[in-house]
């Protein structure tokens, strides 16, 4: 695929707005004054060394982590400690984890229908149809009645993507979705994510897959020590990084 | 370009498989194990044949009084003679069909739950749990349309089962709630649950039973009397719930944080997260611990002797001191052991089956 083959026009609507977000773990200042706006349909890749706060940033967006200062507004709803707001946002924001986190006691199909049935009150029959639709899209409909423990890592991660999509979210968050996979399985997951990007989904991905960033991202954000150091469209980011720290980081991950 | 040809799979060496392989590996792997095997065989030779001689070959199986008993062997006539009392206690003879019916209904009612293809299992199970206790109470205790049998006449295995089943059915949900409460984010709830658990785990059951029957009436106004059996049941439930709570907490701690996060990220609230994702996994993990507690509970029911209830063990004990059957205590206790063993072994086997059926491959 040529570079930026997926170039597209973005909607005007702001889906996510972080302004002046700060967070501490005890004494440790993990997020320092994070400002970030994401428009509808925008695809963002966050990268940076481990401990830079990139995972924490996206985990704040659906309140898996609590921020202590600043404002986070998702799809027009502000995240506060109000449980109603949190649950409303979580319904619209899908998340894919590094370690898949599928429910091992449920079949693949049940994993996919659980939330639509119990959160969206969808009838079982309809939930089954939606689940099969998305399992088809991630190309593993034949595994629907197996348990997660019987699948390979790549298959599990694709089920996890389908599970999140079954809630018909407006935003998808990916937290290092390929880091725990065997090298042979990375491609099948990335292909699924590219396909999802083509459908116009608003996506935030924490990943070290720079090839993916080049083809899919509208914007690449580089973080270090809890701060956003640099952000730019991928071609500018990779060919002409402005910051010394970004250059060192790119030098380390691209030249081996 | 050359293609790699994979080597074919070969069978393992003969000496490592089959009966010979098993014997070599498990009984005669070295001189020490061989010695232990010989010692074990000797112990079996010394103990088992005399036991069989006593319990079966020299035993008396039919008769009606102690004069029918042949010397030397076990006299099972004693058990036969008192069997009804061991099963029903002092439950009126003409009404014992009600106890039988209660048991039959329990078995027949629960049977469909064990049929794999049964549709709407959950709905049926809940309906059963809602209806059966009332039905059982009505049959055993009486009420509209049935003669009342006060609980002071209940006894034998029937009483043991009532205490054990009610204890288990009551302690399980309470224990789960306590375990969740102990891990709650709300400090008040956590403190209440920790206090409750540590209090009940800190006192012996026998003390609790004794308090419930001797101390409680002192604190209550005179006109209020609570049925003795009911007090024992409440004591057993509260006591065992504390143990179940700690077992379940162990299971909750074993569930990876990612499961909570995935459930939360999908928009499931606290109760749905717990009920649909966390507890099914946590309870599956602690089946051995839960069954352990239940087996202990089943045997602990014999402690109700302290408040004058005659469960299986106490009924048998009572019969052995009856002058008409003095000297047959061994038969009585062997029978008691056998009945307890059948129930406890049954629970143990069932739990193993359940574990196997719920196993869904590797974790995560």
UniProtKB/TrEMBL annotation, chain A:
Q: Which Gene3D superfamilies match?
A: P-loop containing nucleotide triphosphate hydrolases
Q: What is this protein called?
A: Amino acid ABC transporter ATP-binding protein
Q: Which residues form the ABC transporter domain?
A: 16-250
- The stretch of residues making up the signal peptide is none
Identify the keywords attached in UniProt to this record, alphabetized.
Answer: ATP-binding, Cell membrane, Membrane, Nucleotide-binding, Transport
Q: Which SUPFAM superfamilies match?
A: P-loop containing nucleoside triphosphate hydrolases
Tell me the CDD domains matching this sequence: ABC_HisP_GlnQ
The source's superkingdom equals Bacteria
Upper lineage: Bacteria, Pseudomonadati, Pseudomonadota, Betaproteobacteria, Rhodocyclales
From TrEMBL, chain B:
Q: Which InterPro entries match?
A: AA_ABC_transptr_permease_3TM (IPR010065), ArtM/GltK/GlnP/TcyL/YhdX-like (IPR043429), MetI-like (IPR000515), MetI-like_sf (IPR035906)
Q: How the protein sits in the membrane? A: Multi-pass membrane protein
* TM helices/strands, residue ranges: 31-52, 95-115, 122-141, 153-178, 199-220, 289-313, 325-343
> Keywords assigned by UniProt?
Cell membrane, Membrane, Transmembrane, Transmembrane helix, Transport
The record's Gene Ontology biological-process terms are: amino acid transport
Q: Which NCBIfam families match?
A: HEQRo_perm_3TM
Q: Which residues form the ABC transmembrane type-1 domain?
A: 157-351
One protein family per Pfam: BPD_transp_1
GO molecular-function term, one example from the UniProt record: transmembrane transporter activity
Q: Tell me which family the UniProt entry assigns to this protein.
A: Belongs to the binding-protein-dependent transport system permease family. HisMQ subfamily.
Q: Identify the GO cellular component terms for this protein.
A: ATP-binding cassette (ABC) transporter complex
Q: What is this protein called?
A: Amino acid ABC transporter permease
Q: Where in the cell is it found?
A: Cell inner membrane; Cell membrane
């Amino acid at each position: 695929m040529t570079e930026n083959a997926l170039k597209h026009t973005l909607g005007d609507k702001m889906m996510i707005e972080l302004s002046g977000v700060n967070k501490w773990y005890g004494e440790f200042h993990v997020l320092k004054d994070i400002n970030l706006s994401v428009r509808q349909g925008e695809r963002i890749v966050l990268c940076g060394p481990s401990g830079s706060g990139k995972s924490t940033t996206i985990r704040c967006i659906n309140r898996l982590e609590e921020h202590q200062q600043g404002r986070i507004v998702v799809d027009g709803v502000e995240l506060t400690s109000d449980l109603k707001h949190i649950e409303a946002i979580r319904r619209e924001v899908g998340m894919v984890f590094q370690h898949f986190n599928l429910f091992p006691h449920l079949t693949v199909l049940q994993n996919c229908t659980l939330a639509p049935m119990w959160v969206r009150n969808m009838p079982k029959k309809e939930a089954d149809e939606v689940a099969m639709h998305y399992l088809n899209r991630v190309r593993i409909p034949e595994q629907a009645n197996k348990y997660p423990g019987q699948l390979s890592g790549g298959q599990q991660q694709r089920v996890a993507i389908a599970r999140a999509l079954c809630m018909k979210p407006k935003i998808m968050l990916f937290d290092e979705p390929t880091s725990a996979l065997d090298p042979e399985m990375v491609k099948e997951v990335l292909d699924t994510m590219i396909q999802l990007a083509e459908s116009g989904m608003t996506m935030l991905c924490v990943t070290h897959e720079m090839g993916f960033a080049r083809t899919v991202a509208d914007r690449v954000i580089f973080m270090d020590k809890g701060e956003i150091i640099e952000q730019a469209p991928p071609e500018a980011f990779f060919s002409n990084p402005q910051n010394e720290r970004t250059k060192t980081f790119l030098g380390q991950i691209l030249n081996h | 370009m050359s293609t790699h040809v994979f080597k074919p799979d070969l069978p393992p060496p003969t000496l490592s498989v089959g009966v010979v392989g098993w014997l070599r590996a498990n009984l005669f792997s070295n001189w020490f194990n061989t010695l232990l095997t010989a010692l074990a065989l000797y112990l079996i030779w010394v103990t088992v044949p005399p036991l069989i001689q006593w319990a079966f070959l020299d035993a008396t199986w039919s008769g009606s009084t102690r004069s029918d008993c042949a010397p030397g062997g076990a006299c099972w006539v004693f058990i036969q003679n008192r069997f009804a009392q061991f099963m029903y206690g002092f439950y009126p003879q003409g009404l014992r069909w009600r106890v039988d019916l209660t048991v039959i209904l329990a078995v027949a009612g629960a049977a469909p739950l064990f049929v794999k293809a049964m549709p709407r299992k959950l709905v049926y199970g809940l309906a059963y749990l809602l209806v059966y206790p009332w039905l059982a109470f009505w049959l055993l205790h009486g009420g509209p349309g049935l003669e009342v049998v006060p609980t002071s006449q209940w006894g034998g295995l029937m009483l043991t089962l009532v205490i054990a089943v009610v204890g288990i059915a009551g302690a399980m949900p309470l224990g789960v709630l306590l375990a969740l409460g102990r891990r709650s984010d709300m400090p008040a709830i956590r403190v209440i649950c920790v206090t409750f658990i540590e209090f009940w785990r800190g006192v012996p059951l026998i003390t609790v039973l004794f308090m419930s029957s001797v101390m409680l009436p002192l604190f209550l106004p005179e006109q209020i009397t609570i049925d003795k059996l009911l007090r024992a049941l409440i004591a057993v439930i509260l006591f065992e719930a504390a143990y179940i709570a700690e077992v379940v907490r162990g299971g909750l701690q074993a569930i990876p944080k990612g499961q909570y996060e995935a459930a939360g990220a999908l928009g499931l609230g606290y109760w749905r997260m717990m009920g649909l994702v966390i507890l099914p996994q946590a309870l599956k993990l602690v089946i051995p611990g839960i069954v352990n507690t239940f087996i202990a509970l089943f045997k602990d029911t014999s402690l109700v002797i302290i408040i004058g209830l005659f469960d299986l063990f106490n009924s048998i004990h009572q019969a052995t001191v009856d002058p008409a059957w003095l000297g047959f205590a061994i038969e009585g206790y062997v029978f008691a052991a056998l009945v307890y063993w059948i129930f406890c072994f049954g629970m143990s086997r069932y739990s193993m089956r359940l574990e196997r059926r719920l196993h869904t491959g590797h974790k995560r």
